[in-house]
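Incident log, support desk, overnight shift.

02:14 A customer reports that sequence design results differ from what the structure should imply. Their input is reproduced verbatim below. On-call engineer (initials T.W.) acknowledged and began investigating.
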């Protein structure tokens, strides 16, 4: 086996080919170009030096844990039953960490690192903490929350919760769910039923084998009246032996496109009785004698989903950072074609390749900034909601207003960040050529990420609702016309000009939709139909406003938190992101006349120029993500850049060379290849002819 430095250099037609010894040397040279302290950028990304220290500590803990040995990760994933078992072992290990009394921020960091190592255990435990328990906390009274904590929910003590919202027939339209919870005044119980096959709860993570309780979304029916969808905690399994409780039918959804380590399942209910106080009653109440207090807006019941969306914006950054590290490191050492000179060109030196990867590197940094901004809005809003007495009408209205704004912001960011990262992962995969297709180089998890654009709110539906909320707010504000603004002789590479331009097109797009709304309103169209007709504009408003938020957050974060040593490189990166984003949304910038066609040509050149600047710092900027080889888990993306040796060893370690015969050689291959043919060619005449020639 060739696994040494021999045969490393070939000269052919005057050109040198040296694929084996050169890559790690190249990587060192690339790294030496870094003009800024990479750890300072790491602190910037983590929100400070202390945060980095904490994050590094949890990362080390994961890396050292034998349960999280991920050397066979990609092979185990091929076998979904084995994968489920391994995932559960990891869930148990995660549970020990997240329930050992550390603060919430540390838990979030820990889980964020887990999401990179194994997105399946992350999600499998996430349905309990992030959806079930968060749902109980946001929808239940403090007493109810404490009750379920005492039942074991906080420590996962003989308890595992799942989140039963989606049904076969309805997912996005929660108000249309069919499962019923009928109040029985005589026994002070709710009776839960699945009225049809389409009402079967479907896709529920953790349900098939793990969950003891479900947070079930069902229609509240009291004295024949339908009060809409509310949340109920429903026991599913006997906690002494995990047998299903009477009236509960549960099944496994089976193999999926990815994340097979999660036991997604379905459930049907037949006259399942639960005590009255198992309905979450923070915002709606049913008294013992069947009086219903149902004044709070229905959206508050979906609060649990907002936390998930906030997390997904962070995930989008985290995942992007891993795949960009792989693709950029690979591009820094991979050579392909010699352009005139004697040595072949590195992929990263192709301007076209730079354009594929470097604006996306900037995009990842922008998502980091936006995610931290969103995180703080989320923390403040949930605090306000928690502290507001539902009986105080004015305070409640203000809190609901804040919650609606958060809903719109988080929905837009979730949609466009997950879409951005999904596209980015595939671009990075393609940038690694054939080796990007090997499961061992990590891109196989693309399908695991793909679900992020669908679950906890389908991206298209979320984007449309963000657009609607933004247009609605603009209508309510009764704002005057947005003043025109043009780049003119301004310098488009200046942050203040970029921020101004982005802000203008975002406001103009909203104004355009508002004007259209008013026109349709005047024509006498019903409100629902107006919104429907505005769908394309709603989407446009959400798309442009979200990108505006990313651009602004990135520049603001640099202004506020970048030390002098890293300010220049981060400003260049933010500038690249804003310029490239204009290219992507050129039609809108032209439509609202902030730029002219000539300006656009200039912007194209500037994107090239900024890609060139960032190219020199690209390895430093990926090193700043600070993922060790363990987290990267892709030999072509290792820190040392020794791509061929690392990759070759990984493949040969995982696929023993002794197996030169297929296990089915005797049963399938041999009978096939050695079969006899009825029409084997008759060569006798040729043989006769040959004999005659020989005799002559
Ligand atoms: C792996 C996985 C795990 C999941 N885990 C859970 C879980 O634990 N608990 C849970 O409750 N759910 C879970 N879900 C369900 C998930 O949240 C839903 O599938 C998701 O919200 C989308 O809803 P839907 O399937 O009803 O899609 P639909 O709403 O039917 O959407 C289908 C298509 O129609 C489009 N569309 C829908 N409405 C509109 C509209 N008004 N205008 C224009 N276009 C529209 C959508 O954009 C989409 O492209 C999971 C799903 C998956 C795939």
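02:41 Re-run completed on a clean worker. Output:
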């Amino acid at each position: 086996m060739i696994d040494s430095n021999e045969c490393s250099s070939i000269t052919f037609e005057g050109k040198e080919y040296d694929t084996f010894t050169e890559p790690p040397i190249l990587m060192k040279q690339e790294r030496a170009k870094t003009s800024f302290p990479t750890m300072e950028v790491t602190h910037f990304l983590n929100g400070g030096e202390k945060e980095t220290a904490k994050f590094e500590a949890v990362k080390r803990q994961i890396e050292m844990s034998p349960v999280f040995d991920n050397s066979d990760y990609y092979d185990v994933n091929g076998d979904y039953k084995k994968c489920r078992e391994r995932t559960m072992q990891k869930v148990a290990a995660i549970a020990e960490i997240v329930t050992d009394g550390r603060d919430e921020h540390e838990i979030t960091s820990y889980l964020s690192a887990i999401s990179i190592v194994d997105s399946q255990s992350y999600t499998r435990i996430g349905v309990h903490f992030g959806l079930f328990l968060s749902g109980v906390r946001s929808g239940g009274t403090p007493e109810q929350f404490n009750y379920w904590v005492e039942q074991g929910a906080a420590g996962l003590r003989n308890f595992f919760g799942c989140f039963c919202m989606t049904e076969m027939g309805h997912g996005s339209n929660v108000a249309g769910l069919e499962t019923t919870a009928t109040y029985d005044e005589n026994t002070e119980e709710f009776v839960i039923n699945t009225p049809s096959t389409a009402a079967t709860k479907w896709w529920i993570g953790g349900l098939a084998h793990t969950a003891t309780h479900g947070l079930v979304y069902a229609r509240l029916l009291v004295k024949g009246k339908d009060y809409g969808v509310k949340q109920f905690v429903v026991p599913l399994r006997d906690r002494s032996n995990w047998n299903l409780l009477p009236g509960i039918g549960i099944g496994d959804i089976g193999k999926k496109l990815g994340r097979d380590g999660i036991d997604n399942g379905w459930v049907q209910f037949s006259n399942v009785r639960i005590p009255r106080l198992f309905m979450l009653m923070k915002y709606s109440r049913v008294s013992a004698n069947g009086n219903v207090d149902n004044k709070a807006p229905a959206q508050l019941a979906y609060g649990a989903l907002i936390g998930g969306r906030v997390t997904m914006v962070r995930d989008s950054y985290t995942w992007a950072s891993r795949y960009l590290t792989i693709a950029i490191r690979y591009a820094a050492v991979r050579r392909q074609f010699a352009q005139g000179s004697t040595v072949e060109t590195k992929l990263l030196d192709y301007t076209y390749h730079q354009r594929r990867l470097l604006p996306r590197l900037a995009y990842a940094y922008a998502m980091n900034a936006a995610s931290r901004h969103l995180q703080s809005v989320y923390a403040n809003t949930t605090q306000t909601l928690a502290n507001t007495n539902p009986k105080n009408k004015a305070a409640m209205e203000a809190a609901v207003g804040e919650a609606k704004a958060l809903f719109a912001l988080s929905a837009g960011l979730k949609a466009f960040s997950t879409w951005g990262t999904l596209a980015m992962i595939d671009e990075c995969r393609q940038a690694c050529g054939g080796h990007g297709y090997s499961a061992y180089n990590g891109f196989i998890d693309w399908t695991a990420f793909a679900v992020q654009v669908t679950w906890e709110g389908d991206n298209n539906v979320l984007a449309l609702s963000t657009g609607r909320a933004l247009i609605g707010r603009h209508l309510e504000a009764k704002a005057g016309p947005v003043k025109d603004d043009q780049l003119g002789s301004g310098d488009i590479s200046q942050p203040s000009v970029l921020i101004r331009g982005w802000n203008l097109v975002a406001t103009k797009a909203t104004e355009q939709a508002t004007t259209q709304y008013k026109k349709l309103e005047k024509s006498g169209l019903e409100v629902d139909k107006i919104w429907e007709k505005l769908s394309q504009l709603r989407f446009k408003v959400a798309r442009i406003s979200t990108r505006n938020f990313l651009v602004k957050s990135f520049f603001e974060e640099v202004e506020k938190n970048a030390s002098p040593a890293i300010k220049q490189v981060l400003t260049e990166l933010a500038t690249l992101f804003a310029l490239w984003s204009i290219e992507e949304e050129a039609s809108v910038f032209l439509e609202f006349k902030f730029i002219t066609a000539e300006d656009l040509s200039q912007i194209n050149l500037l994107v090239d120029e900024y890609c060139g600047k960032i190219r020199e710092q690209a390895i430093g900027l990926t090193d700043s993500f600070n993922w060790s080889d363990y987290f990267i888990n892709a030999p072509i993306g290792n820190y040392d850049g020794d791509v061929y040796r690392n990759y070759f060893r990984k493949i040969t370690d995982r696929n023993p060379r002794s197996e030169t015969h297929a296990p089915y050689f005797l049963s399938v291959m041999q009978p096939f290849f050695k079969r006899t043919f009825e029409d084997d060619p008759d060569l006798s005449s040729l043989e006769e002819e040959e004999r005659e020639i020989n005799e002559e």
